[in-house]
Amino acid sequence: MSSQRQETVRRLAAPDIAARKGGEPIVCLTAYTAPMAEILDAHCDLLLVGDSVGMVVHGLPNTVGVTLDMMILHGQAVMRTARRAMVVIDMPFGSYEGAPEEAYANAARVMKETGAQAVKVESGPTVVDTIEYLVKRGIPVMGHVGLRPQSVLVDGGFKAKGKANDERVRILEEAKATARAGAFAVVVEGVAEGLAREITDAIAAPTIGIGASAGCDGQILVTDDMLGLFDWTPKFVRRYGDLRRQIDAAVGAYAEDVRARRFPGPAEIYFAKAANT
User: Fold this and answer.
1) Which of 94, 224, 259, 276 is the most buried (most CB within 10 A)?
2) Confidence bin at 155 (pLDDT 50/70/90)
3) Is 113 in the active site?
4) 73 Cβ neighbours under 8 A, 6+ residues apart
């Protein structure tokens, strides 16, 4: 055994994120693969293995078709390389909306098989009791209010929320109930700017905005969106890269070199050793 002690990096956990309420903004991004998680880990406080993986990686039209096995597989990949950031895994559609006991069994499986620090559920009037049930049994939970992607079939699309007063009141009350149930943080997605600030002021848990307000306690984006891997991105995304064009140019150059027999060249091939004479 080496006499040199290895430096231990302490991973952030739910109490660390909860303690950031009103303080330094919490930096969050989505992660689905080991190589990307390794890069993001140095910059982020929280990595979300989002069910958006169904659309971003698997080409699904929405998140409804994502399975528990898919979330566990990608959660395991992220946990293999993320060292410092807290890792939260989305509970997919159909895995937590029924009986609290079923939700607990599924959430416990996610925690055991991935080693992640928490799960996320899309909040609603029927989910608040489940959040409390999970938290009381040792599973940290992140909530999610406003635009809820798993409700896309009910809503008829991905539509901003909270513009009308009755909807604003409902979302605010859902956020309050989610925090009271024990959620350590609440994602606020696709809501009017004023409502996002109102929610942030009204609850003790930190808010993580996406298409909400800079007044939230933190921000999250789908990493592939902010890196510019798609032709189209939502209004609330700021592109910090243009990787789609860079990848297209790199692959095009590779294809040209292969067709012209310029690749592989002498630097990329192996040669037999000269025979002894």
Assistant:
1) 224
2) low
3) no
4) none
Same domain flag for 201 and 225: yes
What tokens were used for 101? 């006991």
Question: Phi and psi at residue 123, in whole multiples of 5°?
Answer: -70, 160
> H or E stretch including 218?
strand 218-221
pLDDT value of residue 124: 82
CATH number at residue 105: 3.20.20.60
Rounded (10°) CA dihedral 92, 11, 32, 200: 60
Separation of alpha carbons 32 and 50, rounded Å: 8
Over range 170-198, report the average pLDDT: 96
96 and 204 part of one domain? yes
Question: Rounded CA gap, 180 and 192, in Å?
Answer: 23
Q: Model pTM? A: 0.92
**Would you say 85 and 174 are in contact if contact means Cβ atoms under 8 Å apart?**
no
Mean pLDDT for 47-73 is 97
Residue span of the structural domain in which 259 resides: 242-271
Catalytic residue among 167, 189, 198, 268: 189
